[in-house]
Amino acid sequence: MSPTFIIIQKEIRDGMRNRWVLAVTLLLAALALSLGFLGSAPTGNVKVDPLTVTVVSLSSLSIFLVPLIAMLLSYDAIVGEADRGTLALLLSYPVARWQVVVGKFFGHLAILSVATFLGYGLAGVALQMAHGGVDFTAWMPFILLILASILLGACFLSLGYLISALVHDRATAAGIAIGVWLFLVVIYDMALLGILVADGGRNITSPILNTMLLLNPTDVYRLLNLTGYENVAMFAGMAGLSEQARIPMPILFGVQLLWIAVPFALAALAFRRRAI
């Protein structure tokens, strides 16, 4: 068996042993159910599907939670192994460094993907059953939410691996990871909003705004979920932004994949040059 698959299996087993999958699944399911039942309570008269309400609510809160979970999984993936002395032992076997990085990354991505799929998926089924049965047409935005959440998690896994490959102690890695999470999730959008207000529409045109949004994976995630389907955009109040941004969904997916590939490639390069 390939060393990469052995490492993937090891990371999944470690995640199961440490209850990562169970904890993240329960957390995401509880969040989705809470937002779904509380948010859909006043929608009976306007005939809004509960999954639509849940997509709008989860798109805002998952931006905070999913990247944080991904950072917690990945920030010490390399530097933590080095501190414990297990990285040198692992590299003493006939395994290439790129195989170590790829195996650990896809192992963590599998943990995050299974937890997201189960947590959000089971909550979506429960919401629809509680409101009169399954409506398959309402599932398309919700499936997009799950897929986009996995991609967003993969983006921050890549960033976490890049941090872990560059620094030489876990405390530094943890501090930088929290700083990156805080900047991309909170500070960037606050700064962008301040710039837009100060500009007053004089210099920042739609193409410039589109570029600024694409420079942050959390904004790409928000655009994917809240502007991808008309009913979700209308309920979220994002129809105007959808018309202004006009970024096709394939481009949004492509940019999100770049946010995964580029940091991961840099992490693999930094790990290859790292002294153990």
Describe the structure.
The model is unreliable at 41-46 and 234-240 (pLDDT under 50). The chain has one domain. With 276 residues, the chain is mainly alpha-helical. The protein has helices at 3-17, 20-39, 50-74, 79-84, 86-91, 97-130, 139-166, 170-199, 206-214, 217-227, 230-236, 239-245, 249-272.
Give me the strand/helix succession.
Answer: HHHHHHHHHHHHH
Average of the residue pLDDT scores:
83
Poorly predicted tracts of residues: 41-46, 234-240
The tally of helices reads: 13
Question: What is the helix content?
Answer: over 70%
Considering the chains and any ligands shown, give keywords for the structure.
0% strand, mainly alpha, 276 residues, globular
Question: How would you briefly describe this protein structure?
Answer:
The chain is mainly alpha-helical and 276 residues long. It has helices spanning 3-17, 20-39, 50-74, 79-84, 86-91, 97-130, 139-166, 170-199, 206-214, 217-227, 230-236, 239-245, 249-272.
Topology of this structure?
Elements: H1 3-17, H2 20-39, H3 50-74, H4 79-84, H5 86-91, H6 97-130, H7 139-166, H8 170-199, H9 206-214, H10 217-227, H11 230-236, H12 239-245, H13 249-272
